[in-house]
Design a protein that fits this description.
alpha+beta, four-stranded mixed beta sheet, elongated, Ubiquitin-like (UB roll), 24% strand, 2 domains, single chain, five-stranded mixed beta sheet
């Protein structure tokens, strides 16, 4: 029974499964390993006789490839594959470190070590120098600090351009050096062998 004023619900059709397959003929793959090119209706009937569904696996192939298997199991395997792929991907984040034009050496070293850790993890680092009040008259100090920071982190990350001013802040962006290039820099050169 449907409530008044609402259209009746349409039964959910599963796309690319059994009768929803629109191709005239398919390359049907069955559990016993046989592969046949046959009309879709015949392939669906054969799969249903085996107690399985015919699922379109490669719709862009010529002719499209369909496999006879349990639809629920196929859905489960697909979700599992997507979950595994999502787990393996690494999202690169931008980590921000804030400085003042008169940041002392201890704080500078502390933040530099954080930046090295972030770059080794594969994240990008944005170093920002904030100018407050009359400090804006000394933007050259901020630029020098950012240039020094970029030079100190050269083995771990490369600066994307020169330090830039945005309002009352100066910033520089550092990207991590690729792993193979970093390993080559850290590995000492082999010593030449001497025959005695």
């Amino acid at each position: 029974m449907t409530p008044r004023g609402y259209p009746p619900r349409r039964p959910r059709t599963r796309e690319n499964v059994n009768e929803a397959i629109r191709a005239r003929e398919v390359r049907a793959v069955f559990p016993d390993g046989t592969v046949e090119i046959m009309p879709t209706s015949l392939a669906v009937r054969k799969a249903q006789d085996l107690g399985l569904d015919l699922i379109l696996i490669a719709p862009t192939a010529e002719p499209p490839v369909a496999k006879a298997m349990d639809y629920g199991q196929w859905q489960y395997e697909n979700k599992k594959k997507q979950h595994e792929a999502k787990k393996k991907q690494h999202v690169i984040q931008v980590k921000e470190l804030k400085f003042r034009p008169n940041t002392d050496d201890h704080d500078y070293e502390f933040k530099k070590n954080h930046a090295i850790r972030f770059l080794k993890e594969g994240n990008r680092v944005k170093a920002v120098v904030q100018f407050r009040g009359r400090e804006i008259a000394h933007t050259d100090l901020g630029r020098k600090l950012l240039m020094r920071f970029a030079e100190d982190l050269a083995p771990y990350g490369t600066a994307e351009g020169q330090p830039r001013m945005e309002g009352r802040n100066a910033h520089v962006l550092l990207s991590p050096v690729k792993a193979s290039a970093a390993a080559a820099k850290e590995k000492p050169a082999p010593k030449p062998e001497t025959n005695s």
